[in-house]
Amino acid sequence: MTIKKAIITLGLTVIIILLLFSYNNKNNNQKNEAWGIPEKENAEIVTTYSRVNFFLAGLNKASLAIPDYWEGNYRIKEQGDTVTFYFVRGVSDEISLFSIFHKEKSEFSEGDEIIGSNSISDFVFSEHETKNLDDNIYYKIIDNIEDVVKSFKAS
After folding, report:
1. Phi and psi torsions of 129, nearest 5°
2. Which of 38, 82, 102, 112 could form a disulfide with 42 if both were Cys (CB 3.0 to 4.6 A apart)?
3. H or E element: which one contains 68?
4. For residues 150 and 142, what is the distance between their CA atoms, to the nearest angstrom?
5. pTM of this prediction?
6. pLDDT of 95-127, one tens digit each?
């Protein structure tokens, strides 16, 4: 008879523990909803940004906010009054994404897409031709260029 009692007691204990766990989990979800915290499966993916500075040698310093998923997938090269952003595939394969260049305000041309200016220069954006690649991150970056350019700051 004592073995039967032990089995019944063990079974009841397991049921009570499962009920308590279920109640606690439901209670935590209600607390999260009250605080506006989404459940894990409904949580949004948060993108963080870091500022990339260029044209540091002269009077036309500028920067862009680059999303974290660009890290390791892009490179910038400065040459004179132009900075070009490249998508990087492997060690030596670079595909140009866009360029930003600065020129004196008096050199402004019809059709220039000016994205910013300071007291002496205008900053002009030039998007490069999109390539046909089998690479999802490339297209994610391409789709995000407009937002990145909106983050442009000149000093």
Report:
1. -65, 135
2. 38
3. none
4. 14
5. 0.68
6. 999 999 998 877 777 778 999 999 889 999 999
